[in-house]
UniProtKB/TrEMBL annotation:
One of its GO terms (molecular function) is ATP binding. It comes from Tianweitania populi. Catalyzes the phosphorylation of the 3'-hydroxyl group of dephosphocoenzyme A to form coenzyme A. It comes from the Bacteria. One of its GO terms (biological process) is coenzyme A biosynthetic process. Keywords: ATP-binding, Coenzyme A biosynthesis, Cytoplasm, Kinase, Nucleotide-binding, Transferase. This is Dephospho-CoA kinase.
Length: 201
């Protein structure tokens, strides 16, 4: 089974590109979505104990949690130490299920793939990218997003240029949906060739 790591900085188009892999029949495990699910389930008592006041009506309030951690590196580290192992365990389950099912290619959508040294968990890395202007416009148009929050998240991420340098494939999401879809299809075609040559681990 070929494990593709899909990553990219905030607002670069990971979720949109992940959906394009799904459209091609490739199962995707989404780390952000897993975090959000954990915040309504398994992680609630842990977050409630570690960050009092961030759980509202039995669910983690992400705006409150962001306010507690985003400008406070030790607090963010503490949060990551709780959340990342839970996300990791869920993604390992996903991989086991697909190995057993004989699925040929899967995608792990991991925003912090490089930052958490996840390179060794995947065979090939796809980086989604767009110009800084497009990224900024996309991110600032989201509800609950501010200049400060954007700057704070960006500062915690490996720069886009470095991500591109380390990528096996880059999907440019700045030119529209169809070119990005064509790039996804080209990657899968290329991987098909790699498998035929026996180069997958
Ligand atoms: C800080 C939180 C509460 C903000 O929630 P919010 O709903 O506003 O944003 P969301 O979760 O959709 O994340 C949006 C984007 O922010 C970036 N981001 C999120 N967490 C981090 C982080 N720890 N370091 C750097 N960038 C991050 C990613 O690009 C992500 O795609 C939330 O992101 C969180 O709990 N982060 C800690 C867990 C984590 O590290 N998640 C990242 C992937 S496992
Ligand atoms: N190929 C594309 N062409 C045009 N617009 C795109 C493309 N890819 C993504 N977008 C747009 O960019 C915005 C951000 O995309 P998306 O939510 O997929 O980013 P993301 O990388 O998952 O973000 P985050 O890291 O913050 O979770 C969305 O409004 C989406 O419609």
């Amino acid at each position: 089974m070929i494990i593709l790591g899909l990553t990219g900085s905030i607002g670069m188009g990971k979720s949109t590109t992940a959906q394009m892999f799904r459209d091609e029949g490739v199962p995707v495990h989404d780390s952000d979505e897993t975090v959000h699910r954990l915040y309504a389930g398994k992680a609630v008592p842990l977050i409630d104990a570690a960050f009092p006041g961030t759980v509202v009506d039995g669910v983690v309030d992400r705006t409150r949690l962001a306010a507690a951690v985003l400008n406070n590196p030790p607090e963010l580290k503490r949060l990551e130490a709780i959340i990342h192992p839970l996300v990791r365990a869920e993604s390992e389950n996903f991989l086991d299920t697909h190995r057993k099912a004989g699925t040929p290619v899967v995608v792990l959508d991991i925003p912090l793939l490089f930052e958490t040294h996840g390179e060794d968990r995947v065979h090939k890395i796809v980086v989604v990218s767009a110009s800084p202007d497009i990224q900024r416009e996309r991110v600032l148009s989201r509800p609950n997003m501010t200049e400060d929050k954007f700057a704070s998240i960006l500062a915690k991420q490996l720069p886009d240029a470095e991500k591109r340098r380390r990528a096996d494939y880059v999907v440019d999401t700045g030119a529209g949906l169809e070119p990005a879809r064509a790039a996804v299809q080209a990657i899968l075609k290329d991987l098909g060739k790699a498998t035929a040559l026996g180069t997958s681990r």
